[in-house]
Amino acid sequence: LLLARTTQRRPRADRSAAMSREALDACALERWYPYLRRHTLKTRFVQLSPVALSYLSEDGVTLPPKAEVSSMSTVSLRTSKACGNDSLAGHEQVAALVDELDEAISALGGAVFPKLRWSAPRDATWATAGSAKCLSAGDVLLLLKSSEIVLHELESQEDSETVSVAIGLRKWCSMRPCNDFRCFCAAGRVVGISQRDLGKSYSFLLDEDYRDRLLQTILSAFEHAILPSHAPPVQLERFVVDVYVTTEAKRVVVVDFSPWGEAAATDPLLFTWPELDGLAAGASAASELDLEHLRVVGETEQSGTILRNPFSEFRAPLETQLLQNGVSGVSFMDFMKMCKAGGYSDTESGEEEAEGQAGGEDADASAKQRIIKAATAILLTPDPFEKARLSSVVYGAWEDDQLQCTPGPLSEAFEAIGEQALQEPPVAPARPSAPDTDPDALRSKFRKIKLGNRKGLLHSIAHAESYAIDLMWDLIARFGSGMVVEGEEGARRLPIEFFNDFAEAAAEEARHFLAWCGRLEAIGAPYGSLPTHDGLWESAAQTADDLAARLVIVHCIHEARGLDTFQSTREKLQRCQDDESIRVLEQNVEEEVQHVRKGVSWLHWLADTRGMDARELFDRALTERFVGGLKPPFNLELRDRTRMPRSWYLKE
Q: Which three-class secondary structure state does DSSP give residue 491?
């Protein structure tokens, strides 16, 4: 496909003429980046020669011969050789640009997203499978040349002889839209904060306690990092800054700056510019921002309404997107081959229609089936190290919306396991065979070694993490397919966020397992060298028929008990003077808190859907599925961070 930009372009306001040139220049990426490099994404700049600038501005998407496009691309492209000599793609200066881009991408870890002085090609991600992630110079050029937003900026630079244009390559990292915020600043104060993703309401953002913590984190970053940087945009009387707030509102990453006002074409999001101008006029060094001016999309008029994606008009045909995702088992390339051979028939399958009958139409059904199949494959992988590796690979592909069952990272695993075995989760996960198969004997040896030395302690922790990987994937494979939750408002399927949460948890458990294995190698006791048992799986087997019971027993009880032992484990390692193991323990504990919190959160979701109280589900599972009752000591500090009510486990 030869892609050309639209020749009839919509007229755009010349924002540089309608606003201060000083403000516009101050917000250019290369101007503010040196001042805030410690608080933003690592970036490298590649200068554009006049020829390269002309090449990016010319119509059509013709790539230089040396520019390879990664497999993420959804289109096939012509090279300069195929298109004749009517393109600058074959010019030596463009070839040099390709080399510089590839070198910079390699220096930034192999994955970047591109940006010019002000603009990013957000309208062109349809050409790269819905993501701005670029793995090669070809990906970068494809995005830039497919973008009308970028073209508008390039055209504004054509008559300028003093301004040099550079491509900023920013180190890629997966950012969740729910954590993106836009801050409106005036008189050295933040006067308003808005959620940037207006296409979705996130329940955790509606929690007042979380929003208060979020507000304090952003204001602290502004006071201690952004304002003291003396970056050019910060010197302006009014400016806008986009930030990314990491999980649990711990850290703020500066993403971009924009000029203030409607004339700058900066989107006020959940505010209006007259409203923001009024807030700015009343701002002073003594004024403080309250939660009323931190706005998120919600169910009430005050907290905003869901709006359409502003880039929804910049998309490939729906059929192309569906084929890219392999709908009905037909990939885009297979579809093109079938069309060429005259063998494609546009017939509808009744399977998709049937899938939406129970619990309403499930728009994410295809993605869910892919992650369920991947989860089953990991459960059937006996090698614990391969299990951990696949967990990381699968979650990375899932998070980037690039998870394909085949071809992909799981192709060999699928082939080895067999398609039939992948149709349903196993009763128990595949594990390495143990020389001693007597469970009681294994437990006896396990206890003696665990109590006897540091090697046994670290080995037991690593073994627990290995089974935790299986527990997370089993939750997805066992309960994710076909489960419909009956409630007062009708039947509901598990939402896509359920799969997101526990795929993430599985990848984190995999990282924990490998970290502990590294410690075992360092002290001469590699994982598998000491006896283990499968007692950790018994809780999963006992709750295989009930999602609520699984969440209670595994997450709210067993994983929470792991938090209770944090301090005693740390003290044991201190007595061994094992500082490196303490570091691993402390790095992992925050993610373990989040795993318990996920269990608590989804237990509340189940209860709300069924019109019940979460405490009722907790008590029922505790009575019917857990022997011995809950006993102290409890680590109240860590447990409180999971948002599990103390009344669930503390006796009055």
A: strand
